[in-house]
Specification:
This protein is mostly helical. The chain has helices at about 5-30, 35-50, 55-75. About 85% of the residues lie in helices and about 0% in strands.
């Protein structure tokens, strides 16, 4: 799906709708390793959708940076 389509959808459902979509995806998570990777995919689509809103995009970026920090720690052997 094109990012422009995702942004358009984000603008239609707004912050509350994107948040609800993310919460629903988390609620559907079955607790398995396979399920958590599927959840990652679902949330990545919602994160792209959030680029339609500056504030929500900042929140997504904050989460990305926090996770990248954890990856850096692993790579540095911490």
């Amino acid at each position: 799906m094109k990012i422009s389509e995702l942004r358009k959808c984000g603008a239609i459902i707004n912050r509350q709708g994107m948040s609800k979509m993310a919460m629903d995806a988390v609620d559907e998570f079955d607790g398995s390793y396979k399920g958590v990777m599927e959840l990652c995919g679902k949330l990545s689509v919602i994160a792209k959708m959030a680029t339609c809103d500056d504030y929500w995009n900042e929140q997504v970026s904050r989460g990305v940076h926090k996770q990248e920090f954890k990856v850096d720690e692993i790579m540095e052997g911490k």
